Amino acid sequence: MACALAPNFAALIIFRFIVGVSASCPVAVVGGIYADVYKNPVTRGRAMAIFMAATTFGPLMGPIISGFIAPVSWRWTFWVALIVAGVSWVPLLLMPETYAPVVLEGRAQKMRKETGNPNIFAPIELEKKGMKQMITVVLTRPIRMFCFEAIVLFTCLYLSLAYAIFYVFFQSYPIIFVGIYGFNYGEEGLTFLPIGVGATIACGLYLYWDYLLQKAKARDAPWSRSEEYRRLPLACLGGPLFVVSLFWFGWTARADIHWIVPTLAAIPFGIGFLLLFMALLNYLVDAYDVFAASAMAAASCARSLAGAVLPFAARPMYDKLGVAWACSLLGFLSLGMCVIPFAFIRYGDRIRANSKFCQYLAQKRQEGEEEEERAARAGAAKGAEVIELPEVKV
């Protein structure tokens, strides 16, 4: 609303900054929410796939809506965004807390009130809190994971490039379809729709791969037991498709070639783009579990910065190199990044074994399994049913 009512350009920039800060929250926490809600990696992966396919259509609808509405008034693009944001905000008011330590904290508070025992605590209540703890542990964790976790670092680099190229298209499409083919801005916005078609196909490919994986697990195929084979083969397919689409788009965007040819290049682009995000982000969530929100925060911050900064170079790059070689440059950069998911498949288990975060998670899982086993033995000895209770400390 503030952007729609901005009195001058400086105010608009400030309000856009506030929009960016606010809008970064759901992007950062969604991986953590899915890790909390869906403990089964299969269910969690499917939910993430559908979520990412759906959210791809947001940026695609922007050029279409603004292309037709902006000629009336640029302010109306923000009024439409306000309507969408307002409608989608209402269900968030009804969402419950999903982070297990905080849920246990609420249960402990309720038990203290009901029993009158002031010595009942959830584990999170016994942890150090305060601004120092917030700054040195919570806020710096995504930075530490980006700097010292190879999986997070290289995932961030690859996805940042892909995300930046996606937003470079918001600069290159007007150069091509308005400058070369003479489209108006509304028609130019419609040329983004094939990316959405590709994203839909990618979602279907993900679900089909998941089906094949479950069949392989049912017959106990050796490769199906690998954590890396659960997600990463999709990125191995998406990376080359992403590269092919860039060369296809760049070398067919000419006045002597019909506009439908470069437009259709967006289909493999959408497939490759979404497969990369589905595979690599799900791999992050699976690898880091309760730390998934921090890993996702690092990934979302890195790609958002790249998506905001790199498009500034788009027009000078296209003016200097031309459409074909500008797209080729992006294609060669993407080709270099293609090795990352293959390297994860080959060395991912060793990388996770040397990760402090993954070691901690493995230790906690082992302790949890041992505790369940002891409880089961105790229950069997007493001939009683074992009931899991909330973890509290007295």
Automatic annotation (TrEMBL):
Give the primary localization class: membrane
Entry-linked Pfam families: MFS_1
Q: What is this protein called in UniProt?
A: Major facilitator superfamily (MFS) profile domain-containing protein
Q: Does the keyword RNA-binding apply?
A: no
Signal peptide segment = 1-23
Q: Keywords on this record?
A: Membrane, Signal, Transmembrane, Transmembrane helix
Q: What topology does the record note for this protein and the membrane?
A: Multi-pass membrane protein
Q: Which Gene3D superfamilies does this UniProt record tie to the protein?
A: MFS general substrate transporter like domains
Lineage, please? Eukaryota, Fungi, Dikarya, Ascomycota, Pezizomycotina
- Where, subcellularly, is it found? Membrane
Transmembrane spans: 12-35, 47-70, 76-94, 150-170, 190-211, 232-251, 257-283, 290-310, 322-345
